[in-house]
Specification:
By secondary structure, this protein is mainly alpha-helical. It is about 50% helix and about 5% strand. It has a single domain, classed as D-Maltodextrin-Binding Protein, domain 2 (3-Layer(aba) Sandwich), CATH 3.40.190. Helix 2 crosses helix 9 and helix 8 packs antiparallel against helix 9. The two termini are about 20 Å apart.
């Protein structure tokens, strides 16, 4: 949170230490990683061709679709205990929508208890509403719901919730280079410059 608020800099030594630790994980990345979408990477796990990936809860929906939720596990990213990285999908009502009654009906349906109780267990996400009964939810969902209720909410930088669009793009570009060259100083300096631009 300090990085996103500007109270810490991307080139602070503590951040560089984390980047250095991350380079160790990169030794385990499959050679064709850059050619894969998130769903391709998740399929590798389902097919037994990979041990793990770092992914959001939407990946759970892939396991549901293949009927293999009994063959997966989950955990918080190491060192992130007490935090819940938040990604929010939402629908809006466009101003001047040509079919306003239908737009409102769609939003009311999506926001209903019944819709969220039916949709979220299949998607892998947790409901936006806190009054949705969790009877039909998996142990994974219940774990995630409990984390959301008690942990510190952190907006996802990768999805633009914690950063500006310009910084998000700079982060993507710098991360792509970093995965290849593992140059901590360049990665840190690039992000520090982007954060102050």
């Amino acid at each position: 949170m300090a990085l996103f608020s500007g109270d810490a800099a991307w080139d602070d030594q503590e951040v560089k230490d984390v980047m250095t630790s991350f380079t160790k994980l990169l030794d385990y990345v499959n050679s064709d990683h850059s050619a894969l979408s998130w769903s391709d990477a998740t399929a590798m796990i389902i097919e037994g061709k990979a041990a793990f990936n770092t992914m959001g809860d939407w990946a759970y929906g892939e396991f549901v679709a293949k009927k293999v939720t009994d063959k997966m596990g989950w955990l918080s990213y190491p060192g992130s205990d007490g935090s819940f990285v938040l990604v929010v999908d939402g629908f809006t009502k466009p101003k001047g929508a040509p079919h306003m009654d239908n737009a409102i009906a769609w939003l009311e349906t999506c926001a209903s208890v019944d819709a969220q109780a039916a949709f979220n267990p299949l998607k892998g996400s947790i409901p936006a509403r806190t009054d949705v009964p969790t009877d039909g939810f998996s142990e994974y969902h219940k774990w995630s719901i409990a984390s959301f209720a008690k942990d510190h909410l952190v907006g996802s930088a990768a999805h633009g919730l914690a950063t500006s669009p310009a910084f998000k793009q700079a982060f993507y570009d710098a991360a792509i280079a970093f995965v290849t060259d593992k140059d901590v100083d360049t990665f840190a300096t690039t992000l520090a410059d982007a954060a102050t631009a």
